[in-house]
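Lecture notes, unit on protein representations.

Consider one protein chain, 74 amino acids long.
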Amino acid sequence: MFEKVTAILREYTNNENTPMSMESTLVDDLGLSSLEVINIVLAFEDEFGIEIPERIIPTMHTVGDIVSYLEKTV
């Protein structure tokens, strides 16, 4: 799951070589804007055929948060 998540995240980062770990934060470490985070959520919904409730989005601060949520949901 980590590999799938980071592959999608790499589409939105400015640098393909940005290191990513479970602890990487979306905004501070990866430099994503709030709009990009919303677009990423939509990409995860499309990729995994799920709907992520709006109340969940603010809890997704790190790559690990996304991976954990998707592992429980998918």
